[in-house]
Write a structure and sequence with these properties.
By secondary structure, this protein is an alpha+beta fold. The chain contains 42 helices and 37 strands. Its main location: membrane.
Length: about 1200
C-alpha cells in the first residue's frame, strides 16, 4: 500500500525530495515556504472519518484468517456446494470485524485528541513587529517566538536572546532524557544584544544553514549569517521541542524545525505493528492447516469420483443426478463442499477467543495492586492488549539507567574524618546495628539553618563537630567552600541550593546541617555561617573540574588573612598529590573507602593545603597570564594547577549514595535467576555507569573478569573484543557460525542465527559509545554479538538513542530470542519501539517513553512481577488454550472425515446443523475461555520464589510445531474412537422394546454427545487451577447442551419449524437406553486413559521444574525466604564520583557579569525537583527483605 501511495505522490508531483541542508531566513515566510518545510502540527493518528472504514477493513483482510473466512462465506452462499448454512460463518466474521474496528477506532480517537491538544497550544509569535498569540500548529519555520518560564518549547529553536545575563537559559530535559537537573543553553552574543527589543527582532534577517532533520539529540551543526558575518552554531545554542523553560523570565527563539522534523518526533521512530512469536507461529500453522485441509479435501474428491464410478449408478434410480452434472463436475463440487464441511480445523472463534484472553490478561496487569505506586498514584498499565504472552518469553532486557534504575537523587551516607569512620551505628557489644526507617535520626534543631529533609543517624559526628574538633570542622568547611553551587534565599533562613549535579547538592547540604552553611557568593567572595557565625572568604581562584583532572579546587583567603587551597576529587588522583606525612592516615582512609565501595557508595577524597602569601602573588600573576593567553591556554593552566595541587594534607573521604529505585538489586537478582540477560544502555559516562552496575549487583566482585572496551579505532575495538572472547572461551571458533534458514509466512523470510557459546565462568563487559559505533559496523557486528552474549552483564555507556536501537536490532536479527526494552525518556523511544516489548517508566520524569511503550508502570521493581507472574501466566494460559482448542476442533472435524467413508463421500455432515453452529460458539466457548483467563500452575508467591519456572517460555516448550504435531496425533486417535465406537455400538442395534435405533439421527446424537463429554473431560485434565467460574462454565456448558438438545428435538419445535428441526424424538429415543450411556462412558474412557498414562509416566521419568514446584506447593504455603546474615563486602574497586557529565561552571561562577545585585532566578536545577530539595535518605536494610509477591 505504501508503494501505491508513493507512486501516486510521484505522479502528482508531490513527492518530497530528500533534504540535504536546511536553509532558512528569519521573519521571511515567503522565502521559507518556497522550500515546503513541514509546519509545526503533528499527526500520530492513522484514520479520518472518510478513510476509516475502507482502510480498517483493508488492514483486517490482510490478515490471512479473515480473508480465508470471507472466501468461505462466499462459498457458503453457493447452494450447489454448501451443505452448511451461511450464517455459521457470517455471524462470527461480522462480530470479529466489528470488535476489532471498534477497538481501532477508539485507539485512533485517543490519538486524535492528543494531537489536537498539542497542536492547539498557544505561543507568542512575532508577526509584523507585534507579538501575537498563535496556535502551535500555525507556527512555521523562520518564525521568531517568545517563550516564558515554565513554558514548553514549541519547536526546535535557535536561541536568540534571553532575560538572563550572558544570554543564558535553563532547560529541563526530562521529556527527552529523563534527567531532572537543568541544562544551561547560551545564545550568541551578536543575537543576545537584541534582548526583547521588538523593533530589532522584527528587523532581524539572519540566514541559517544547518543540518537536515535527524534524531541526534546531542549534536547540531549549522551557521548563522548576519550582516555579512558567519557565526558557528552548535547544540548549546538550540532549544529542542519537548523541553521546558525553567528559571528564565523570557527568551526569544528562531524556529529551525517544526512538527515531524523536530528531534523529539524524529526520535519517536517508526511505529511498527508488533506481533508475538506465537502469532508468527500460528500464521505458519494456519498455512500448514490449509495444506492439511486441501489434502483431506483432495482425498475426498478422488474417493467421491471413484465411488460415483463404481457405486453411484446403483443409487441414481432413487437419487437421480441433477441435469448437466456428470461425475467430474460432481467431484469438483464435492471438493468445495468438503472445504466448507471441514473448515472448522481453523474456526473463526479461535481468533475471537485469543483477543478476549489477551484483553482479560491485560486487565489483570491494570488491576494488580502490587504494581501500583501510591506515592505517584500510578498504576501499571497494559497499553497494548496483543503482546501479553510474549512477556513470558523474554531472554534479553535492555535498560536505561537514569530514571529507570536510579532516582537521580544523591544522599550523604557516611564519611571518614582523620581516620575515624562516621555514619554507622553500633550497640553496646560493638555489633553493627541495622539502620531502618524507624532508626532514630540525628536532631539538627540546634542549627536554625539546617535542612529539615536531611537524614543522618550517627550522633557522634555532631558531637565531634560541636566539640570544635579542628579536622571535622576543616572537613565541613571544605565542603561548604569547594563547589560551584548557587544559593537562593527567598526568605530569611529558607535556603535552596542549585547544583549542576545532584552530587554537589548532597555534599553542600551535609555541610549545611553540620553547622557550615553556605549562604551566598559573589565573583570575589563566598559567605558561610560557621557554627552560627558569619564568615566571608575571599575567593582567589577556582581550579575547575573536568573529566581528565577528576578533581576541583578553590583557593580562598580567610578574614584573618590565611590563604588555603581546598581540593576534592577521586581517591587515586588525590593520593598522588598528598604530603608524605599522610601515609598512615591514607592507609586507614583507604580501608574505609574499600568498605564504602563494597556498599556501592560513590566516594570522594578531601584534602587541603595552606599557602604562603609570597608564593601566591607570583602564582596568581602567572595564572592571569595563562588565562589570557591566545595559544596553549589549556596546557599552561593545567601546568599551574599541577604545580599548586601538591603536598596536600588529607582530611578524609565522603560516601554518597546514588539512590537506586527501591528493589532494583533484588529485581535484577531474580531476573538473572530466570536466565534473563540484562544490558544497561545509558548516555552516562563510563565511571557512573560502572558504579551503578556494581550497586545493582549486575557487576559483582565474584565475576572472573569485567572487560572494558574503549578503543578509538575499528582495529582496536576488534582486538579488544577478540581478546575478551578468547579469555572467556579459548576453544571457540575464530569465525562466527551463522545458521541460515528460511522462515515466516510462505517461508519467504531469510533468517540468520548465531547460536550461544557456552562459558564456564561469569564475566561482565563495559563498552563506550565511540567503541560501540565501530563495533556496530557490518564487518564487526558479529564479533560484538558473540562476545557480549558470552557475558552475564553488558553495560554500554555514552550511547546515543540511535545506538540503543541498533544494539536491540542486532540481538533481534541474530538471536532467536524475545527482547524487552525499558526506559523513561525520549532518548529511549527508539529502543522501546525496536524491541519486541517496550516498557515505559512513568512518574515525575517525561512521559514520552510511556506514550511509545506497550506496558508502563512507576518503578523498575515491578518488572519482576510483570514478567515472572503476569508474563508467565499469560504464556502458559495461551499455550494451553491453543493446544486444547486445536485438539477439540481437529477431533470434531476428523469425525466428518471418517464418516465420509460411510456416506459415499457426499459431504454429508455427521452432526446436526444446530450442533455445528453452536459447538464452537456456545458448547465449548466458555470452558476454554475460563482456561485461558484463570488457569495458573502455581500462585504468584511461588512464581516469584522460583524464577526458574520462567525458563520453559524462553525455550518455547509449551507450544511449538512439535507440540502441534502431537496435538494432531492426539486428535486423530480421539476422532477414531469417537466415530468407530459409537458406530460399532449402534450398528444393527435395537432398543429394549425391540424397536430400531440404528438410524442417522440417533447416531448423530450419540457421536456429538460422546465428543462433547470427551472434550469436557480433557479440559478438566488440562486445568490446574479450579475456580467457581471454571466449574460453572464446564458443567454449565454440558447442561446447556442437554437442555438445547432436548428442546430442539422436541415435538413442539418440530411442529412449529418443521424444516429447521427435523430430528424429532431422537433424544428421547436414544438417551433413555443404558447401552447409549455405556457407549458414552467407554468412548470417554478410551480417549482419556492414554492421556493420563502418558502424563503419569512423564512425571515419574522426567519431571519438569513446574511439576516439582507444584508438588511442593501442594504440601503447603511457601515459607518466608531465610534471612541471610549481612556480610560486609570489601571492595578495592572504588566507585568514581561524578561532578557532572561535562566540564564544570567554575568560569561562569567567577564571572562578574554572571551575578546581579537583585535577586535572580536559580542557576541549575529547578527549585521543586527532588534533586534540589535533597529528599530524605532511605537506607536499604542490611538484611535483605523478601518482597512478597
Amino acid at each position: 500500500m505504501g508503494s501505491v501511495v508513493a507512486c501516486c505522490s510521484s505522479l502528482c508531483g508531490t513527492q518530497k525530495k530528500q533534504e540535504e541542508e536546511r536553509h532558512l531566513r528569519a521573519n521571511d515566510r515567503t522565502f521559507n515556504q518556497s522550500y515546503n518545510y513541514a509546519k509545526n502540527s503533528i499527526k500520530t493518528s492513522k484514520y479520518n472519518v472518510l478513510t476509516f472504514l475502507p482502510l480498517n477493513l483493508f488492514e483486517q483482510f490482510t490478515r490471512l484468517a479473515n480473508a480465508y473466512f470471507l472466501f468461505l462465506l462466499i462459498l457458503q452462499l453457493i447452494p450447489q456446494i454448501s451443505s452448511v448454512p451461511w450464517f455459521t460463518t457470517a455471524v462470527p466474521l461480522v462480530a470479529v470485524l466489528s470488535i476489532t474496528a471498534v477497538k481501532d477506532a477508539n485507539d485512533d480517537i485517543n490519538r486524535h485528541k492528543c494531537d489536537k491538544q498539542v497542536n492547539n497550544r498557544k505561543v507568542d509569535v512575532l508577526i509584523n513587529g507585534e507579538l501575537k498569540k498563535e496556535k502551535w500548529m500555525n507556527v512555521e519555520v523562520g518564525d521568531i517566538v517568545k517563550l516564558e518560564s515554565n513554558h514548553f518549547v514549541t519547536a526546535d529553536l535557535l536561541l536568540l536572546s534571553s532575560s538572563e545575563p550572558l544570554n543564558l537559559v535553563y532547560m529541563e530535559t526530562a521529556e527527552l532524557d529523563g534527567e531532572t537537573n537543568l541544562k544551561v543553553k547560551q545564545a550568541l552574543t551578536v543575537t543576545g544584544e537584541m534582548g526583547d527589543n521588538m523593533e530589532a527582532l522584527s528587523m532581524f534577517r539572519g540566514e541559517v544553514r544547518c543540518e537536515p532533520p535527524n534524531n541526534r539529540l546531542d549534536k547540531f551543526k549549522g551557521t548563522l549569517t548576519m550582516n555579512g558575518q558567519n557565526y558557528g552554531l552548535d547544540n548549546n545554542k538550540v532549544l529542542l521541542r519537548g523541553c521546558t523553560l525553567r528559571n528564565t523570565e523570557w527568551c526569544f527563539g528562531l524556529v529551525l524545525f517544526g512538527g515531524p522534523d523536530t528531534k523529539l518526533m524524529q526520535n519517536s521512530g517508526r511505529t511498527t505493528f508488533k506481533r508475538t512469536s506465537i502469532d508468527h507461529l500460528m500464521n505458519i500453522l494456519v498455512l500448514c492447516i490449509f495444506g492439511f485441509l486441501a489434502t483431506l479435501c483432495s482425498i475426498m474428491t478422488i474417493s467421491h469420483a471413484l465411488w460415483e464410478e463404481k457405486e453411484g449408478s446403483a443409487f441414481s434410480v432413487f437419487l437421480p443426478r441433477q441435469p448437466g452434472v456428470d461425475i467430474p463436475l460432481s467431484s469438483f463440487l464435492s471438493f468445495w463442499s468438503y472445504i466448507i464441511v471441514l473448515n472448522t480445523v481453523v474456526p473463526i472463534s479461535l481468533y475471537v477467543s485469543v483477543e478476549m484472553i489477551r484483553l482479560g490478561n491485560s486487565f489483570y496487569i491494570d488491576w494488580d495492586r502490587k504494581m501500583y505506586h501510591p506515592k505517584s498514584d500510578t498504576p501499571a498499565q497494559a497499553r497494548t492488549t496483543t503482546l501479553n504472552e510474549e512477556l513470558g518469553q523474554i531472554k534479553y532486557i535492555f535498560s536505561d539507567k537514569t530514571g529507570t534504575l536510579t532516582q537521580n537523587i544523591m544522599t550523604f551516607n557516611k564519611c571518614s574524618i582523620h581516620g575515624k569512620n562516621y555514619g554507622e551505628l553500633f550497640d553496646f557489644s560493638g555489633q553493627r546495628v541495622e539502620i531502618t526507617e524507624k532508626t532514630e535520626r540525628v536532631d539538627f534543631s540546634w542549627n536554625q539553618l539546617a535542612d529539615p529533609k536531611f537524614v543522618f543517624h550517627d550522633y557522634s559526628l555532631v558531637e565531634t563537630v560541636k566539640e570544635g574538633n579542628p579536622e571535622a570542622q576543616a572537613f565541613f568547611r571544605l565542603l561548604a567552600l569547594c563547589h560551584t553551587v548557587m544559593p537562593e534565599e527567598k526568605k530569611e533562613g529558607e535556603l535552596n541550593y542549585q547544583a549542576q549535579s545532584p552530587d554537589e547538592g548532597a555534599l553542600v547540604t551535609a555541610a549545611r546541617n553540620f553547622g557550615f552553611v553556605f549562604r551566598s557568593r559573589t565573583p570575589e567572595s563566598i559567605s558561610i555561617m560557621e557554627m552560627g557565625m558569619k564568615v566571608t572568604y575571599e575567593l582567589l581562584a577556582v581550579l575547575d573540574f573536568n573529566n581528565v583532572r577528576k578533581r576541583m579546587s578553590v583557593i580562598v583567603r580567610s578574614p584573618e588573612g590565611k590563604m588555603s587551597l581546598y581540593c576534592k576529587g577521586a581517591d587515586t588522583i588525590i593520593y598522588e598529590r598528598l604530603h608524605p606525612s599522610c601515609s598512615k592516615l591514607m592507609e586507614v582512609t583507604t580501608g574505609h573507602l574499600n568498605e564504602y565501595a563494597g556498599d556501592g557508595l560513590r566516594t570522594l577524597v578531601l584534602a587541603y593545603k595552606d599557602l604562603e602569601e609570597s608564593y601566591m602573588e607570583g602564582w596568581r600573576q602567572r595564572h592571569h597570564e595563562a588565562s589570557t593567553a591566545l595559544e596553549g591556554r589549556e596546557e599552561r593552566l593545567d601546568e599551574l594547577y599541577e604545580e599548586i595541587e601538591k603536598d596536600m594534607i588529607l582530611l578524609g573521604a565522603t560516601a554518597v549514595e546514588d539512590k537506586l529505585q527501591d528493589g532494583v538489586p533484588q529485581t535484577i537478582e531474580q531476573l538473572a535467576k530466570a536466565d534473563i540477560k540484562i544490558w544497561v544502555l545509558t548516555g552516562d559516562k563510563q565511571e557512573t555507569a560502572e558504579n551503578i552496575g556494581y550497586s545493582c549487583n549486575m557487576l559483582r566482585e565474584e565475576m572472573k573478569e569485567v572487560f572494558i572496551v574503549a578503543a578509538n579505532t575499528a582495529e582496536g575495538v576488534k582486538e579488544e573484543l577478540q581478546n575478551a572472547r578468547k579469555t572467556m572461551c579459548p576453544e571457540a571458533a575464530e569465525k562466527a557460525l551463522v545458521i541460515k534458514a528460511r522462515g515466516g509466512l510462505f517461508w519467504l523470510k531469510k533468517t540468520e542465527t548465531v547460536e550461544d557459546e557456552k562459558v564456564d565462568e561469569e564475566y561482565g563487559l563495559v563498552i563506550n559509545g565511540q567503541s560501540l559505533a565501530f563495533a556496530l559496523e557490518k564487518d564487526l557486528e558479529l564479533e560484538l554479538l558473540r562476545t557480549v552474549c558470552m557475558c552475564k552483564t553488558v553495560i554500554c555507556c555514552r550511547v546515543t538513542p540511535l545506538q540503543k536501537a541498533q544494539v536491540v536490532e542486532l540481538v533481534k536479527k541474530y538471536k532467536r530470542a524475545v527482547t524487552l526494552a525499558i526506559g523513561d525518556g525520549a532518548n529511549d523511544v527508539s529502543m522501546i519501539k525496536a524491541a519486541h516489548i517496550g516498557v515505559g517508566i512513568s512518574g515525575q520524569e517525561g512521559m514520552q517513553a510511556v506514550l511509545s511503550s506497550d506496558f508502563s508502570f512507576a518503578q523498575f521493581r515491578y518488572l519482576q512481577r510483570l514478567l515472572l507472574v503476569h508474563g508467565r501466566w499469560s504464556y502458559l494460559r495461551m499455550c494451553k488454550f491453543l493446544q486444547y482448542f486445536f485438539f477439540k476442533n481437529f477431533t470434531y472435524t476428523l469425525v466428518h472425515f471418517w464418516y465420509a467413508f460411510f456416506c459415499g463421500f457426499s459431504a454429508q455432515t455427521v452432526f446436526d446443523d444446530w450442533f455445528i453452529t453452536l459447538y464452537n460458539t456456545v458448547y465449548t466457548a466458555a470452558p476454554v475461555l475460563s482456561l485461558g483467563l484463570f488457569d495458573q500452575d502455581v500462585n504468584d508467591r511461588w512464581s516469584i520464589r522460583y524464577p526458574q519456572l520462567y525458563s520453559p517460555g524462553q525455550l518455547n516448550m509449551y507450544f511449538s510445531k512439535k507440540a502441534f504435531v502431537g496435538c494432531i496425533m492426539h486428535s486423530c486417535y480421539s476422532s477414531l474412537i469417537l466415530f468407530f465406537i459409537p458406530w460399532a455400538a449402534m450398528h444393527d442395534t435395537v432398543r429394549d422394546d425391540g424397536r430400531d435405533i440404528a438410524d442417522y439421527q440417533s447416531f448423530a446424537l450419540l457421536a456429538q454427545t460422546c465428543l462433547l463429554v470427551v472434550v469436557s473431560v480433557q479440559i478438566c485434565l488440562d486445568t490446574y487451577y479450579w475456580t467457581a467460574v471454571n466449574q460453572l462454565f464446564v458443567w454449565g456448558s454440558l447442561a446447556i447442551y442437554f437442555a438445547v438438545t432436548f428442546t430442539m428435538y422436541s415435538n413442539g419445535m418440530f411442529f412449529i419449524f418443521t424444516s429447521i428441526f427435523p430430528l424429532i424424538g431422537a433424544a428421547r429415543n436414544s438417551l433413555n437406553q443404558p447401552n447409549v450411556w455405556l457407549t458414552i462412558f467407554l468412548s470417554s474412557l478410551l480417549c482419556t486413559l492414554p492421556v493420563l498414562a502418558y502424563r503419569f509416566v512423564l512425571i515419574q521419568i522426567r519431571p519438569a521444574i513446574t511439576d516439582k514446584v507444584r508438588c511442593k506447593a501442594r504440601k503447603g504455603l511457601p515459607e518466608p525466604a531465610p534471612r541471610r546474615p549481612y556480610t560486609r563486602r570489601i571492595s578495592t574497586r572504588r566507585s568514581g564520583y561524578a561532578f557532572s557529565h561535562a566540564q564544570g561552571y567554575g568560569e561562569l561562577v567567577t564571572s562578574g557579569k554572571f551575578l546581579r545585585i537583585k535577586s535572580r532566578p536559580a542557576l541549575f536545577p529547578k527549585t521543586d525537583t527532588p534533586v534540589v530539595e535533597t529528599l530524605p535518605q532511605h537506607y536499604r536494610t542490611i538484611t535483605e527483605e523478601r518482597e512478597d509477591g
